[in-house]
Design a protein that fits this description.
CATH architecture of the largest domain: Alpha-Beta Complex
Distance between the termini: 55 Å
Number of strands: 8
CATH class of the largest domain: Alpha Beta
Strand content: 15-25%
Radius of gyration: 28 Å
Largest sheet: 4 strands, parallel
CATH superfamily of the largest domain: Ribosomal protein L13
Number of helices: 6
Shape: globular
CATH topology of the largest domain: Ribosomal Protein L13p, Chain: A
Order of helices and strands: EEHEHEHEEHHHEE
Length: 186
Amino acid sequence: MHAPLALPFWAGPGHQPSGSRCLLLLTHVTDLSDATSPMDTQSFKTFSATPSDIERDWYVVDASDRVVGRLASEIARVLRGKHKPTYTPHMDTGDHVVVTNAEAIRFTGTKEQDKEYLNYSGYPGGDHTESPEEVREDRPTKILERAVKGMLPQGPLGRKMFEKLRVYAGSEHPHEAQQPEPLETA
């Protein structure tokens, strides 16, 4: 057994000398060089994905009777790739998402009647508003697409991520060849 090692320990606020000195006894240190060696910072390098590191999976989500915003945030997370340990903010590391039954998606409260989608043509007097009821009659997939698009980065990277989203009003989709897995959402 090694002899106990006595090191000075300064007591007081901020570990500064305050008049009383204590000795800290270390009985389990076998080698003092191990206790005072600097941390190995080379083993903690940040991973940054390159295009060759990116592997894309396919997921399918059934949107029937799901709340728009809650589902959209889960889909945006997968499209960005934040569910992977290889997530890199400046790269598109996300997966493909296929959404079915988008016509059966729902809002909470009275948003179905009260919410307004604003479109502006850029010309004077060219603003146009629609409620989710009106949008659902014209193109039911647009409600979820617009919600997800607003949760992705605004710019070229976000547009590239958005291309991996496929939304279908019914229960059928043409992506069976990709063998999509069901997406585990809360």
